[in-house]
Amino acid sequence: MRTGTDRPADPVVLGRAAELARLDGLLGAVDGGGPQVLVLTGEPGAGKSTLVDRAAQRGRELGFGILRVRGSEGESGLGLSGVHQLLHPLLPGDGLPAAHRDALERAFGPGAAEYELRLDQLSLCVGVLALIGAAAARRPLLLLVDDAQWLDLGSVDVLAFLARRLEGRPVVLLLAAREEGVPARFDRDFPQLTVGPLGRTAAGRLLDAQPDPPRGRARAEILRQAAGNPLALIELPRALARGRVAGAAEAGAGAGGAALPLTARLENLFAADLAGLPAPTRQALLLVAAAGTADLADLIRAAPELDVVRALDPAERAGLVRVADGRVLPRHPLVRSAVYHAASFHERRQAHLALAAAVAGEPDRRAWHLAAAATGQDAEVADALAESAGRGGHAAAATALERAAELTPDPQLRARRLLAAAQSAMFAGHPQWVGEMSGRVGETTDDPRLRAEASLLGGWALGVTLRHEDALALLLGVAEATAGSAPDLALGALSTAATSVYNTGASSYRAELSRIGGLIEGDGDPAGRAWALAVADPHRERPLLMGHLARASAELGRDESLGSLTAVGGTAWILDETEQAVRVLGRTIDVLRRAGSAGTNATVTQALALALFENGSWAAAEEAADEAFWMATEAGADNVTVGARILRATLCALRGDPVAARTRAAEAVRGVDLRRSLSLHVRHRHAVGMAAFAAGDHAGAYEQLRAVFTRDFRPAPVHYHASLYYLGDLAAAAVRAGRPDDARTVVEAVTRDLAPDPSPRLAAVLHRAGALLTDGDDAERGFRAAVDGPGTDCWPFEKALAHLDLGEWLRRRRRGAEARRHLGAALECFERLGARPWAERAAAELRAAGTAGAGAPAGELTPQERQIAELAAQGLTNRDIAARLYLSPRTVGYHLHKVFPKLGITARAQLRDALATEPETPR
After folding, report:
1. What is the pLDDT of residues 759-801, one digit of tens each?
2. Rounded to whole angstroms, how far apart are CA atoms 688 and 686?
3. CA separation (Å) from 378 to 172, 347, 382, 384, 408?
4. Which residue, 67, 142, 156, 711, has fewest beta-carbon neighbours within 10 Å?
5. 92: cis peptide before it, omega within 30°?
6. Average pLDDT taken over every residue of the chain
7. β-strand partners of 38
């Protein structure tokens, strides 16, 4: 029976592709092709029931009859209640032999009670097997058993008997139970599949799919405490939306993170046994929950009157905690939350005070416990918390300073601590948190300097969340207002504004950036000044801008602050000093790591990803983009979330996966208005255009790439900087789409408006574009300028494209020897980067140019490559081939990527003819 293993991943069951594949395998075993029993295990809330539901749905689609039972704690003492529920649709078993009907009647008929003591177990089991067999003779059966840990023992015995005798019958059995509750008859003899926690990607998608998805810190905290548990990811946002949120003060945020309040459903799952535990055990568990990081020695010191080890024994036996290596570990983070919020405030306060006394030698932990126990403002505790902020990472510092501000009686000091907290949160990359705290500064103080600094931070937060116009209204106002009185603050505001100015791409904001910059005297922040000047106009007066970059770079030796490093890295990037940008932004990440904030600034990581991509380090760029995406998603940094997805889509396109590229590009901009963020708009168009190019849709590619320039009589870049680097791709698409005249108009208009001294990178792009659109021998000069320009090795993919174009041009003019040199250089680069469509094109051109070794004959295919190629030639998809050969679709794609150049082809449709004309591979 075909189970359809080539179907796409289920859109509802997120992150369970492997589990769904195993379920498909179980259904496919109904014909005897594999094990006919599968045991699902996992912690409460892991999604076992969802997978059982999905198996039922899939079974119905394939024509299975479905028999189902769900264990009930209330019926676990009722003999055979589970089997009765399972078999109810088939009873009384008309048509069975009399002996089998009689056994079933004795067990399940109206008079079952009077036969209970005389019931023959073997006769019953054989009768059930006969009943199932008779039903399966009409159509295959899928038996589903959920919550098997609560089945009565008699039902477990019957099901185990049945499970061992399914061979030869069109019946499969799926049984789901909690890890610690798998019935003894099923815990060893049958295949098991553990349903573990969701991965980071799936957990984030599931959380975002909720009706009220959390943002910022709340989102990060829910992801942390849910620890991939699907039910927790669904229930915790509901508690948050209802306002059931504890503050850091009362949840021990500095000692292991805030213990989130739970819904009743989660409490029933994670702390159902709590109420029945002895009072000393509950007291010890509360200390564990309040401590956050529960060293057993701390607990013993906190409760000298309590035998902590003995008190924890019932909790360990109940599976709530595990004591090992001198530590007490809750089974799941939500066990801690359930214990913490089951106690009264008085009980929680006493626990924190006891722990504060126990860790008196550790001032930071002591300060946090005293803060959690505080009932009002307390200057001494606030001072201790503020002092501790200097000994952690930026996120930890922001948390400590925010709580210190809440406990600070003096309004001015409270405002300064809030401001410091907001700045730490900015360096940690949490814009929504920054916005919240900077807004409270204005409510706390009338001091103009503090309010201006808060506005600067608030403007940064607005820009990172794609509210560029609001950000610039705030930041440019601060910069102009303080230009004379506080030039350092003004320059900081201007530098921060420059990022939003770049993203909008609007000429009016660039003009304002230049005008206000001229009002600010002095150069106390050379990095900020360089960044603002470069953003305002990166193409004119390049020597002047390079001088500013050099001074800012030299200053880094004396001031290696995050702000200066980020500004220098950004300036180097926008001026096409890409290798320097990679080095400086990499140093910025190192500074974050040394500060204990590794992986906590999405904006820096995204900037590094872009520089790595342009530098030809695609694998590292993809890794950085993935990291930036998840950090930004957790922090609510929408600008980075969209940008990282677009970069990932671009990489998919260039590697030859246009379907994935289009999907990712569409996901990136879903629900986002990019009209106010032209840099992202242009990059999105480029990603979709290159996906079309990779798919051979040159007309579609041209339309997308043409959209990054205006449709005016004299076309101009939609984005003054980003659009320019796509001129070469525009020209390449235009030639293949039959639109060279239109593209020539764009290239000529843009080139006329540029300064005469562009960067080496931009000069190479312009030379390539012009050469592609030039008729006759004059094109050669442009191609050679593109490949021989100074420093062009810094942008390997762009240089390889120029090599490919020049090689093709030379081959068409029968200059094969010269062509092969350029085509070979292009092929080497494309293969190294994994740019499959362009590698295939370069290999085909090399063969046409007379290179015998470009594309080996099919006789040199490995046996596995030939097997895959033959199946692909029959029309099977990668997923079909993977299922047949027990490989992954990715592995199949990898082998086909090697097969195409060996056969000298560029399309799947050519496989059949290519294989027919080539010798067999020796076996």
Report:
1. 999 999 999 999 999 988 889 999 999 999 888 899 999 999 9
2. 5
3. 65, 20, 6, 10, 6
4. 711
5. yes
6. 86
7. 174
